[in-house]
Every structure is written in structure tokens, then in C-alpha cells.
Amino acid sequence: MSNSLLGMPELTRPQINYLIQRANYWRENWANPPQPLAYRTVANLFFEPSTRTRFSFEMAANRLGAQVLNFSEAASSTTKGESLYDTVKTLEAMGFDAVVIRHKENGIVHNLSSLVEVPLINAGTGTQEHPTQCLLDLYTMQQHFGGLNGLSVAIIGDIVHSRVANSHLSALPKMGAHVIVSGPRHLLPADLPRPIEFMPVDAAVAAADVVMLLRLQLERFSDLALSIDIYHRDYGLTETRAQRMKPTAMIMHPGPVNRGVEIAGALIESEKSLINTQVRNGVLMRMAILEWAILGEQE
Amino acid sequence: MSNSLLGMPELTRPQINYLIQRANYWRENWANPPQPLAYRTVANLFFEPSTRTRFSFEMAANRLGAQVLNFSEAASSTTKGESLYDTVKTLEAMGFDAVVIRHKENGIVHNLSSLVEVPLINAGTGTQEHPTQCLLDLYTMQQHFGGLNGLSVAIIGDIVHSRVANSHLSALPKMGAHVIVSGPRHLLPADLPRPIEFMPVDAAVAAADVVMLLRLQLERFSDLALSIDIYHRDYGLTETRAQRMKPTAMIMHPGPVNRGVEIAGALIESEKSLINTQVRNGVLMRMAILEWAILGEQE
Amino acid sequence: MSNSLLGMPELTRPQINYLIQRANYWRENWANPPQPLAYRTVANLFFEPSTRTRFSFEMAANRLGAQVLNFSEAASSTTKGESLYDTVKTLEAMGFDAVVIRHKENGIVHNLSSLVEVPLINAGTGTQEHPTQCLLDLYTMQQHFGGLNGLSVAIIGDIVHSRVANSHLSALPKMGAHVIVSGPRHLLPADLPRPIEFMPVDAAVAAADVVMLLRLQLERFSDLALSIDIYHRDYGLTETRAQRMKPTAMIMHPGPVNRGVEIAGALIESEKSLINTQVRNGVLMRMAILEWAILGEQE
Fold first, then answer.
1. Best residue in C37, C72, C86 to probe B by mutation, most B CBs within 10 Å?
2. Are C164 and C154 in contact (CB under 8 A)?
3. Where are the alpha helices (DSSP H) in chain A?
């Protein structure tokens, strides 16, 4: 009955709809949630730093009654050369009910999943997958627009290195949404799969129901021969450019935001922004995911 | 109904008395405390190392039924440039019920408090404020002496850099206590506000009901052109100097103690010492503070 | 009624049997354990990195209803020079119910135990003691073989630096087991206490009911003028060498394993291996130890 969450391609449309509906159930039961995961224990294995995703999982687990144990690489015996496989086998033998993994390597959770019994949850791997962020974004769009089918989503920025973007390139078309990508040419995939369309930034902003900005890795700027100011002017959502948005269009960003780089600071908390709603929904969606991973689908 | 704890100047005398009375309530209900914070979650954001304050908050929260999530700077995305404001907004959106902050910058919790809704608790900022330590000290004095009004408190050491001392310089006079300061001249404030009196160490020790030693930042010694031995002889509470204390006078120290620097090792656990009582009361006072911050005053 | 766990020499045979029987009780009540440690708080003080032992204690405490607070050296005020004694006194004053300590110094937990009231649990100190690992190993042998009396246990590897081995050299003879040691001569104790016997590796493997490999400190290899390959060939449990084992003999290893060094990778999860069972039993034995330390023996 238990499930691993590996990546968006592995999820069916009904599974995605189930998780969205279940996140909504947890929203409606926020104040006094039932505790289906009482006596359960979840391990957070984060091999890359992340406050928000780790806290979001921990908050979600706690509200379901589960305990969370945090593994941080520096303080652990990974420094003694123990492999991730051996670590997860150890956690499995100890009786952990689920293992949440963030890692810089593509495919590492997929590879592990065939070797262990304990449910694994991909909390972001490499440049390819960040399914929990993708699912909370889908829930946020569904909640705001009432549906995903026919929605136009413009994803703007460093697509090629973004695990969030790559999860969406798989998931949004499956849910019937139309995807536009935009940003510096050398940060876009060489071959875009068919239904996905490239547009220059101004056109993308004007065409979309959702303008989704991606976090730029500032440490990459020197490599890119880009300045932050020029990036903001040419590819960021400036206040001027935001005026091109459709009246009903909304802004999203997976966070943490670089203010004044991908987006003007004043827009982050504007009424056109869903950014704080995304954070809030992250806890709810991770409640849905943890319950589904450990207990399977509920009736 | 919720409250932020910013600093001692912001608290009224009735509020301080309320918190002292409430800490005492939790002392009387230590073994089987009610759990008014069940389902609540507190974030500990410590940007400076501290075992005792962090553990004290965590113990306090747990006994009230709350969960605590710990953020430590090294392992977090602050290293990615996310500002404290954005971090706290994120925690607020996630549904945290209170955020405990320790930071080296003066005024940072005050500044934040006007920008967020979530209750903030100042767990020590800059050189100016450490209100939870101050409150637990007030509770300890109240408990031992039966009242604060008319009590003489000598604060000895590096006043100018001590957040504990500066909180007391605001709070003790408000509670009717008389404050004496002592220590090396260049570590005292240039202008002492009126009711506060300077005395040489021997006189201060002899005059006080409470001899409060401050932790010396050993890393500052080379700057000060002071040796530890000379500091101990001239400004520390040596066993000889302690004999000048009034028979009813008591020793306090916010900890952690540098044995043989501010105080002779043998005095720390002597019957004239309230140092361990302060630690114990720290948990009780932080229970009172967390409850007040999240739920407001109880009837 | 409370107890400290200092080392194996301090435990009587009936105490060891009690803890084994109690670990088994917790195995039988895994799914819905009673929570005798509700409202209790345990501090994990780990001054050496360890994922498995720390997680094992944390899992054990959580299942008994207790909260665990983790102290990691880097983030703490030990960096401010606070001594371990002062730290533990502080935890005691805060009301912690037990303190779990891992430290590189031999005897440090013994020394502390005469100075504090709070129960201490040795989670591995220096090269001499790792009683919780030893006890979980004894439980694993008891469970698999039905008893310890008369069992032959071959401990192979770096005996002299192994806290696990040294705990077993004290405990196994007390329980009526026969101990064989093997490995490179310069990694064996100069004087073996009487009932303990040295054998060359092949003979030890053939004679034993339990073949217990020790983790090799890889960082020590350059000192030892040994290569990993030669160590594996001469002292490791290769697949070939494992064929000398008695049909009923079993493999144990305290973990984490260096695959292909002390043991061939293929043997770790073979049917002759108890290594995962040891991990599982570690949680159960630590449940027994925490309950015994805080509440004393149960009827």
C-alpha cells in the first residue's frame, strides 16, 4: 500500500489529482488534524542545504503525528564513507516509515528505490526532479484557477538547470496545461518537446495565466558573463513588465526569491502574487504526500 | 491575543509580574503539565551558537506540547543569501506559531516585528537585549527574596558589551530594584542613567543583595590588554572577595561561566549561588513566555 | 531507581539478562508500544559524528514517548570553552531525564557519573567502551542462538582501537561465551586476559559460531603501512574464507561496514548475516536501556 515519490513522469494524472484533493483535505482540517501517522518516524536526508523544504516536510510530518529525524551531511558518518545505500538500508532496518532525500545527483532516488522497501520521497535531485515542489505548484494553480486544463504557464529563467522547471515540463502537459518557456537562450533546453513553446519574455508574460519565475543561482553569474542588473532588465519580472500581464494572471516562484533579480521586490507580496500561498500549500501537499507514501491512498 | 517579546523596555511592570507569576505556575505543574501548545510549532532561529538558550526554549516548548524546529545557520539557505525577513515570512506562511530569534545585530527583532504577524521572541540580540534571560533572573530574585522592590543588584564585568546587563539596566529600576554597576572603567557605559550607581568592586560586593557576574568574552582579552589572572584578581568574585558579601546576599551569573575568571570555581555550586536555579528557572520562564506569545495572557 | 550505563564491566550478568529480556518485550510491542517515557526528555551529546547510533537512540526514545534534543559540537557553546561537566550540570538543572554521551576520551562518562545525578548513558567512549552496541549484539546472539553460554565468538580486526571489541572482551566471558580474537598482530592487545584465545584468521572463522568483523578506520591505513586490498585478502571475510564457516555460524558487524575491506559486499545481506538484525535490535535494546536508565527495572 505504501508508495515512493520518485518524479513527476512516474505519477499518473489520477494520482496527481488525488494528491491535490488530499492536500485540500488537510487545508480544511488544519486546526485540529487527525494524526494518521502517530507512532511513525520519517528521516530527512538532506545532502544539500535547504531551510524551506526541510522545514516544510518537518511541519507536515508533525501535524500528521509523525516524528522527524534530521540527518545533515556534515555531522554524519557519510564523512566516514558510508554510502547512501547503506544509510537507507540502516534506516529501513531501524524501522523508519519513510525517507525523504535531497541530493545533487540526478536519478539517485530512482536507483535506490529498486533496492529498498522503505518508501522514498524525492525532495529535489540534480537538475531533473523536484516533484513535491511541482505538486504544490499544481495544487496552488488548481486552487486559484479552479482547474489546470487549458491553463497557460510561462516558466521564465534558467530552465536547463532547474529541477522545478524540469518537473513541470513533464507534469503540466499531462494535466492539460499549455507551457511557454522563456529566458536566456543558453539557459533553455536545446530541444523542446513538442507542445512546449518558446517565447521572448515580454510575449510570454503577456500570454500566460501563470508567470512562474525561477530562482537564479547567483553563484553561476560569473560563468554566464551576465550581470544581475542586465538579467533583471532583460529577463526579470520588473514592475513595468508586469503591467503586460493579463488582469487575471498570477505570479509564482518556488523560492527562495532573489529580490530584484528574477522579480522586482515590490511584486513578491503584491495581490498578483501566489508566492506565499505556495509556501503555505507546500506544507499541505507534503502532508498529502507523506500520508500517501506511508499509508497509501485513503478512501 | 498573541504577543512578541522584543526587549525589556517594551514590557510594563504588570506584564513582567504576570510572566513571573506564570513561570511559577509552571513550576508547580512541572511533573504533569497541561499542554496548551499541543499542535503548535515553534521555530528556533539561532544565528549565533548557544546550547543553553536553545535547549531551554526547546525543553520549554516540548513541555507545553509544542514541536520545535531548529534552524542552524550553516546548514541553511541563508548561505544562499535569503534575508531574515524572507525566512520569517516563509515560516509565517508555513503556519509556525512563534519564531525565536538570536542574532548578533541590535534591533533586528524590533525591525522585523512591524513587518510580520507571527509572534517573535528575542532570544538575545546584539549588545542590547536578552529579555528572556533578564526575565528568568527577575523570577529567580523574586522567588528567593520574595520581591524585587528595594533589592540591591550589583552587576559586575563587561557591562557595555553585555546584552544581559543592558536588559537589566532597563528592567531592574522599573521593578523598584537599585542597580550598582562595577568592573573595568572602559567596559562600563560612558553615561549611566540616573538611578544607576557605579561602585568599585569591593564596595559593590559588600553593598548588594545580588552579586551578578557577567560572562567575559575571552576572545576579547587580547584587545583589552588584560590578562585573565589580573581580571580575576581585580574584578572577579574570588573566594576572599565573596566574604565581603552580606550574609543574605546571593550570587547570580547568566552562564556559561568561565571558571576562575568572573568567579572562583568553588563558589559556583556553593550555597550562596543561585546559578543552577537560574538554569532551572530558564525553562519555566520560557514556558511562560511561549504561552504568552502564542496564546496571550491566561486568566 | 534510575541507572547510569557506564560500561560492560559495571553490569552484572542478571542486569544484562534483564536488558535482553526487556529489549525482547519492546520487539513484541513494536507496533503500539506503551509510552512509559511520555513527558520525558533525553539529551543526545555527540562529540563524534555518528548517524546510526544517534538515530537509533532518537528512534528508541521517540517510541517510548520521550523527546530528544540533539547537541552537535560545532553549533554549540563548547566552542566557547564550556566544559562537559558544566554542560551536563546545565542539562540536569533544566530537568533532562537522561544524557546520552559519545566522546573520544576514555573514562569521561565514568568520571562525570560521580559528579551528577542525572542518568548518563555511554554511547561510545574512547577505545574502551561501547556498551549499547555490545548489549544489542548480545541480544542478537541470544535471539538467534537461543543462549550465550558456550557460544564461540571470533572477533576479527583492529581489536586494540575498537570500543566495541573491548566491551565484548569484558561481557562475553561473563555471559559464558568463548572469545577468539584474530587480525593483524600489531592491532591485538599485547596481553590477552586468560579465557580469550588468539587464532589465525582461517582457524578463527572455522571455529566460531559468530564471526564478528570490526570496522577498520580507513584513515589509519597510511599509518599502518597496509593496503586495503591486502587487508581484505589477509584478514577480511572474503567469500572464499566464508566457506570455512560452520553451517550454523553467523556473521556480525557493528557497522557502518567498509564494503570489500572487512567483509565482501555480497556477504553483508546474505542469509548468513545478522548485520541488519543488529541494526533493528539496536533500537529495541536502546528502548530497554533508556527505560532502565530513567525508570529503573520494571517488574
1. C86
2. no
3. 13-28, 51-63, 84-94, 108-113, 131-145, 163-174, 201-207, 221-224, 228-235, 239-242, 265-268, 275-295
Cβ–Cβ under 8 Å, residues A256 and A52: yes
Confirm or reject contact between B43 and chain A (CB < 8 A): yes
Q: What is the mean pLDDT of chain B?
A: 93
Architecture of domain C8-130+279-295 in this structure: 3-Layer(aba) Sandwich (3.40)
End-to-end CA distance of chain A: 12
Strands (E) in C126-177, as ranges, are: 152-156
pLDDT digits (tens, 9 = 90+) for C154-176: 999 999 999 999 999 999 999 99
Listed in order, the ranges of chain C carrying CATH 3.40.50.1370 are 8-130+279-295, 131-277
Region at C209 (left for phi over 0; alpha for psi -120 to 50; beta for the rest): alpha
More confident call, B81 vs C261: C261
- Cα separation, A243 vs A270, in Å, equals 13
- Over range B40-67, report the average pLDDT: 93
Binning pLDDT at 50, 70 and 90, where does residue C13 land? very high
CB contact under 8 A, A41 and C49: no
**C83 vs A245: CA distance, rounded Å:** 61
A262, A213 in Cβ contact below 8 A?
yes
Strand partners, C43: C69, C99
End-to-end CA distance of chain B: 13
Say whether residue A117 is in contact with chain C using an 8 A CB cutoff. no
The C-alpha cell of A201 is what? Answer: 519574455
Q: How does pLDDT run across B278-293, given as a tens digit for each residue?
A: 999 999 999 999 999 9
3-class state of residue C9 by DSSP: helix
CA distance A31 to A149: 31
**Where are the domain boundaries for CATH 3.40.50.1370 in chain B?**
8-129+279-295, 131-275
Considering only the beta carbons, identify the residue of A32, A49, A74 that sits closest to B76.
A49
pTM to 2 decimals? 0.94
Residue with the three cell numbers 538570536: B102
Q: Is the pLDDT of residue A170 over 60?
A: yes
The pLDDT value given to residue B211: 98
In chain A, whose CA is at the least distance from the CA of B45?
Answer: A51
CA gap B122, B120 in Å, rounded: 6
CATH of domain C131-277: 3.40.50.1370
Helices H, strands E: what count in chain A?
12, 9
Confidence of residue A76 (pLDDT cuts 50, 70, 90): very low
Q: Which of B43, B75, B82 sits opposite A256 (nearest CB)?
A: B82
Please tell me chain A's helix, strand, coil percentages from 3-state DSSP, rounded to the nearest 5: 45, 15, 40
CATH class of A131-275: alpha beta
- Whether A37 contacts A114, CB under 8 Å: no
CATH homologous superfamily for A8-129+279-295? Aspartate/ornithine carbamoyltransferase (3.40.50.1370)
Beta-bridge mates of residue C45? C71, C101
- Amino acid, res. C3: N
- Record the cell numbers describing residue C87, joined without a space: 554542560
Tens digit of each residue's pLDDT (9 = 90 or more) over C229-267: 899 999 999 999 999 999 999 999 999 999 999 999 999
Residue C117 in contact with partner chain B when CB distance is under 8 A: no
Phi-psi region of C255 (alpha: psi -120 to 50; beta: other; left: phi over 0): left
Between chains, do C49 and A91 touch, taking CB under 8 Å as contact?
no
pLDDT of residue A224: 61
The cell numbers describing C258, all together, are: 567498509
Cα B39 to Cα A120: distance, rounded to the nearest angstrom? 26
The ipTM of this complex is 0.92
**Chain A residues close to C46, C-beta within 8 Å:** 75
Q: Is C41 on the interface with A (CB under 8 A)?
A: no
At which residue does the C-alpha cell 530541444 appear? A191
